[in-house]
Amino acid sequence: MKKLVYILPLLLVLTSCELVEELLNTSYSTTFKESFDIQIPEGQYTQDSPFLILKEEDIDLTDDEFPQEVRTGVSELLDIQFQSVLLLFQGKTPDENEKAFENEGMISGTIVFSNPDDPAQNVEVIVPPVSSLNTEPVSLPLPDNVANSIAQLFFGSPRVQFIMNLQYVGPAPFEGEVSMEIPMEISLGLL
User: Fold this and answer.
1) Dihedral of CA 96/100/102/107: which sign?
2) Three-state SS at 49
């Protein structure tokens, strides 16, 4: 009977600690968005001779695009999970009369995420061919080990750099836009 008397308060204390921990750990669903225009000069770009596109930018958890709670509580980051990287490529080829018409162009390449203070710490995401005729974003392959490696970069710094190394293949001149979205779940240990 004495054992039962000791076990019940211990279970109550452990259960209370777990509840308090859950109350203190708060999660936020948010999405990082980045888009940029591309102007591809006249020419015919092929697999052997593509037009190269380079875009360099930061994902900074202290930027205004993230919820206020995330910006102020980033030092208490417990976890960050990436479900996917979504990429949309759209554009048109203008004709001689300055009217644009749809014509398929393709981009492919890589997106490299890295620690800006130590570029040797990086993770590469493959961009398979994405057509300019897509109307919906394409979800890029993001295996668990890649998603976890990107998350680890944020534990070293609230700012992670990404570099898009893309190749355009198709007719030109071509005017378009590349849009990237990264849905994420951010958990903070707030007091």
Assistant:
1) positive
2) coil
Q: Between 15 and 117, whose confidence is greater?
A: 117
Residue-wise pLDDT for 58-84, tens only, equals 999 999 999 999 998 888 999 999 889
Sorted by sequence, the CB contacts under 8 Å of residue 79 that are 6+ apart come out as 151, 185, 186, 187
Tell me if residue 66 falls in helix, strand or coil: coil
Quick one: the chain helix, strand, coil %, rounded to 5? 25, 55, 20
Exposure class string for 138-166: b at 16+ Cβ within 10 A, else e: bebebeeebbebbbebbeebbbbbbbbbb
In angstroms, the Cα distances linking 61 to 57, 110, 162 are: 13, 23, 14
Amino acid at residue number 176: G
The reported pTM is 0.81
Closest CA to 182 of 71, 70, 58: 58
What is the rounded distance in angstroms from the CA atom of residue 26 to the CA atom of residue 39? 42
What is the C-alpha separation between 100 and 91, in angstroms, rounded? 9
| Cα–Cα distance measured from residue 191 to residue 186, given in angstroms and rounded to the nearest whole number | 16
Band (pLDDT 50/70/90 cuts) for residue 129 is: very high
Instruction: Report d(CA 60, CA 99) in Å as an integer.
Output: 39
Radius of gyration (Cα) for the chain, nearest Å? 23
Query: Which residue is associated with the tokens 């102020």?
Result: 72
